[in-house]
Design brief:
Transcriptional Co-activator pc4, Chain A, single chain, 4-stranded antiparallel beta sheet, about 35% strand, about 180 residues, 2 helices
Length: about 180
Amino acid sequence: MTANENSANAPDAARNGRLTFYHPTSGGTGSAARFELRLNRAGEQGYDCMFLELARQAAPASGTGSARQAARFDWQRKITAKLGFGDMCEFLAVLEARKDSAGGERGIYHASKGANTIIAFRKRNDQPGFLLGLSRKNGASDQPEKAHVVLSDMEALGLGHVLRQALFHVAFHDSLAAQASR
């Protein structure tokens, strides 16, 4: 299940778009992945990237008929990684079968303030689909937080198109914004 979460009522609606893949299970062990394009506003630095968020399922769907409640995901305890131009290219290389795994066998490694994150993205060999995972270890913790989701081949196809378009904006946003303000 996929949702485009760009709401006209959201304060950042003109700036950010989100693509979310929901994969709930009846046992409550599913997860969801969200990709958000983040472009700098005038005077900002440090964005022009895509954020990847993975959240574990908090509760399975419940009820029946008009009382049915959709599965819920724990976005408050999400794991987040910032994807730059090179990271998005790694994802595309996997989607285009140029590489077996983004970043090599161990994944893409990111170190940030007090935490280390590993981003895993690879085509599954034994079954259809692509495995997307995040593992984040905070400096004070011995155990990493982990979440993963399996994207179907069709979801991965759509994600590939989104990433290709995002690359253009990440690479040339500053130039385009300067021209638009003239």
